Amino acid sequence: MTDQPNQPLNEEAPRTPFEEFLYHQRRALEETGKALEALLPEGFRVHSAEATKEFSKGFRVLIDAAVDEIKKASERVEVNVKVNSDDDDTSTTGKTKVKVQVD
Q1: pTM for this one?
Q2: Number of domains in the chain
Q3: Predicted confidence band of residue 8 (pLDDT cuts 50, 70, 90)
């Protein structure tokens, strides 16, 4: 992309004024990020990146453990449902069944 206004994004479609605005806003944010990064010492940037990675890894472990527990609970429920449905396939009323003779 060029910094010239109204230059096409590609050969087929010309850039609209709104697309031009968004392009310049995105570039302004990128440059602001670079300016702020330049203010911080290298050691701070390195350690903050590592801290962010460790923070994410910690949450990943927690979420994976929760997913595993949900899977185990789901499997136990499926087994219980299967065991209860194998007791008597002719009725769905449960353990207290009443048969009624209708004439």
Answers
A1: 0.47
A2: 1
A3: very low
**Across 29-100, where does the E strand assignment appear?**
none
Q: Is residue 103 part of a domain?
A: no
Q: What is the pLDDT of residues 46-77, one digit of tens each?
A: 999 999 999 999 999 999 999 999 999 999 99
Instruction: Report the range of poorest mean pLDDT among 19-28, 66-75, 80-89.
Output: 80-89
Considering the domain boundaries, does residue 60 fall inside one? yes
Q: Is residue 100 part of a domain?
A: no
How far is C-alpha 3 from the chain's CA centre?
Answer: 35
Structural domain of 57: 17-82
Contacts of 6 (CB under 8 A, 6+ apart): 14, 15, 20
Domain membership of residue 5 (yes or no) is no
Give Cα separations from 41 to 38, 46, 51 (angstroms): 8, 9, 16
